[in-house]
Write a structure and sequence with these properties.
- The chain is mainly β.
- The protein is built from 3 helices and 25 strands.
- The chain starts with a strand and ends in an 11-residue tail after the last helix.
């Protein structure tokens, strides 16, 4: 394998009745994880070493790809193997046509390095498709193709992951341990689609603590010249700068916006109970952009519209492959990918959170809007959703 970061693409053909699939990776020492932190997947999208992060899905022309970015130079010395796996969501891999795993080199324009087409599947709901392994001081890749009928849970347990299980009342309460064990990994999730766009956080048990909204996108860099040293590129321009924002309306009638523009980062423990954690200028950060909503004050929230604008670096969302995840502190995460953009849109409404009689509902919007000439993206999304605010120019 090249001594550089590699993009691992899990792909398949989609269509009616085809289940969703998810890519994951496990870092192993003597065949097992050191802890649950060595499992990288949709609920735990980045490894603490920075060696692996989950980039999310994209859907183009009937083909879906879920990707991981793996930097083998940052894998800790004691790690011997990095397992690359896939799990089916809502069906079996016998219903997933054209399943493959492909390794690409981002430094060379995503040039393919290796590919393995899975020869076929039946009732399996999880697969180990391949693995990186150390041999004589270098990293190599091996195709595997080992299936599991017990899903991601069975695969994770096989490598030493502690998986969360539904709690059942015990007949006699046991004494509390002196030191609480680590929290198990939670594999449940909710994926919103055009056919099923909404979910009730109340019914999921996710109406207290904080709700973290994460936006991640694939950084798209542009070549800007040659260095003259061995014919190597001199530099790459920064990728597009996307801004995660939120329009809010409180039950007392007050309205506003949380965004990096104008340093309107909000507040978590006072109105509007929404806070933007920071401003990721390139999309290269493992954490992307994050917005936090304090659900302990949900009675003060009437509606919250989460949206994203392109501040600079791109003329539309086409090719940015953004993924949105809403992670309640208590309850299953809610995620969705932005569909392929076919219009010159610089603002996209992501999700609408409404509070009706105490029932918090998240609705997937994924609605691309095209501002008219001279109209800001913020004013455009305001008009589309009837917020009725006054806007002035701002900067960051």
């Amino acid at each position: 394998m090249p001594t550089a970061a590699l993009r691992v693409e899990l792909g398949w053909r989609t269509g009616p009745g085809v289940p969703d699939a998810d890519a994951s990776a496990l870092l192993l020492v003597r065949g097992k994880v050191r802890s649950d932190a060595d499992f990288v997947f949709y609920n735990q999208p980045a490894h603490s070493s920075g060696a692996i992060r989950h980039e999310g899905k994209r859907n183009t022309g009937g083909r879906v790809a879920d990707t991981l970015l793996v930097d083998l130079t940052r894998v800790e010395p004691e790690v011997e193997t990095v397992v690359l796996a896939a799990s089916a969501d809502g069906g079996t891999f016998g219903q997933v046509p054209g399943l493959y795993i492909e390794l690409r080199d981002p430094a060379r324009g995503d040039t393919p390095v290796a590919r393995f087409d899975n020869p076929g599947a039946g009732t399996e709901t999880a697969f180990v498709l391949g693995e990186f392994y150390r041999r004589q001081g270098a990293w190599k890749f091996r195709a595997v193709g080992q299936g599991y009928s017990s899903g991601l849970e069975g695969l994770a347990r096989d490598y030493g992951i502690t998986v969360d299980e539904p709690q059942h009342a015990a007949p006699d309460p046991a004494p509390a341990p002196v030191t609480a064990p680590p929290a198990p990994v939670r594999l449940t999730k909710v994926t919103l689609t055009k056919a099923a766009p909404s979910v009730s956080l109340t019914k999921q048990g996710g109406t207290s603590g904080v709700l973290r909204v994460n936006l991640n996108w694939r950084a798209r860099k542009r070549f800007s010249g040659w260095s003259g040293k061995a014919g190597r590129p001199a530099a790459m321009d920064a990728g597009p700068d996307l801004d995660l924002c939120a329009l809010y309306e409180l039950t007392d009638g007050s309205k506003g916006v949380v965004q990096a523009l104008g340093n309107a980062f909000g507040a978590l423990h006072r109105p509007p109970y929404i806070h933007l954690d920071g401003d990721d200028r390139t999309g290269a950060a493992a954490t992307g952009e994050n917005l936090t909503v304090n659900l302990d004050h949900k009675e003060a929230l009437r509606r919250v519209l989460v949206f994203v604008t392109i501040y600079e670096g791109a003329g539309s969302f086409a090719g940015l492959n953004a993924t949105v995840t809403l992670q309640p502190q208590h309850g299953a995460p809610v995620d969705f990918s932005l569909d392929e953009c076919t219009v010159p849109s610089t603002v996209c409404a992501l999700a609408l959170i409404t509070n009706t009689g105490g029932d918090l509902v998240v609705r997937r919007e994924a609605r691309y809007l095209v501002p008219e000439r001279g109209v800001s993206p913020q004013r455009t999304v305001d008009h589309a959703y009837g917020w009725g605010m006054n806007w002035t120019p701002g900067r960051k």
